[in-house]
Chemotaxis response regulator, CheY subfamily (Moorena producens 3L), 152 residues
Amino acid sequence: MLDNNSKPDKFMVFKIADYSLCLGIRDVLKVVNFTTEISREMKTMGLVQLGKHTIKVWDLHQQLGDGSLPHRSPNQRFLVIIRPRDSELWGIFVDDLPNLVELPQDMMRPIPKSYRQASVLEMISHAAVISNEASTQKIFLLDLQQVGALTP
């Protein structure tokens, strides 16, 4: 009989700065191509208009990067649209097209609250390490409850 904790779950994995981050697939509403028009709106307001929806942008590059990048590189072109529980729509600007990854639930290990005091770790609730023959990848699960607390 399969243990309930080893049941696979799906995650949307994306890279920001040097970090591989993820969200549960149920938290992702849509992934859209990041156009130059959206880029201008985001720089000036921190908001984008997609159809009839106004979306606040959560730019994790400011929090996870080294702060030395004055503008976005051309390969950064996707916006992951999410709706944190009982909240308005948010967009997370990501470097490349996210990947859908299936992981057993028991691979996602909670990060102790005492470690979550550092600025990078306070936005992360769980971590997983995926090893294959060529490399090892650490994936961090974003804590959507921190979205409002960490953004201006």
The radius of gyration is 16 Å.
